[in-house]
Amino acid sequence: QRHVTKSSFSYKLLSSSTDQKTKIPQIQKGYVAIYVGDERKRYQVLIENLEFSTLQELIKQSHDSDFDSKIDGPIVLTCTTDRFDELLKFING
């Protein structure tokens, strides 16, 4: 099992298999996975942080104009990772 930490975000792989296709990323309880930018960098963000209007606006901009409170599939943001990192700094004070 591999564990990599960056800032307050952690990434954990469930499978210890050497086959990369069988590894499934685990999300900590109370967090949601958000993929950001063209490179789809994966972040784990506290669910309660989804209440911030700035983050809600990024989600709306990145998904269909028919934004619904339900998103099928992963949350993917089209903004840059630099912009998202700045937003997280603001949110986490």
Please state the overall shape, judged from the principal axes of the Cα atoms: globular
Strand order of the largest sheet: 1-2-3
Task: Count up the helices.
Answer: 2
Mean pLDDT: 77
The SS-based structural class is alpha+beta
Beta-strand portion reads: 25-35%
Name the poorly predicted regions: 1-19
Biggest β-sheet description: 3 strands, antiparallel
* Helical percentage: 10-25%
Number of strands: 6
Kindly report how far apart the N and C termini lie: 32 Å
Instruction: Give the ordered list of helices and strands.
Output: EEEEEHEH
InterPro entries: SAUR_fam
Family: Belongs to the ARG7 family.
Pfam families: Auxin_inducible (PF02519)
Question: In words, what does this structure look like?
Answer:
- The protein is an alpha+beta fold and 93 residues long.
- The protein has one domain.
- It contains two helices and six strands; from the N terminus they run βββββαβα.
- The strands form two sheets. A three-stranded antiparallel sheet has the order 1-2-3, with no helix packed on it. The chain has a three-stranded mixed sheet with strand order 5-4-6, covered by helices on one side.
- A hairpin with a 4-residue loop joins strand 4 and strand 5.
- The N terminus is likely disordered.
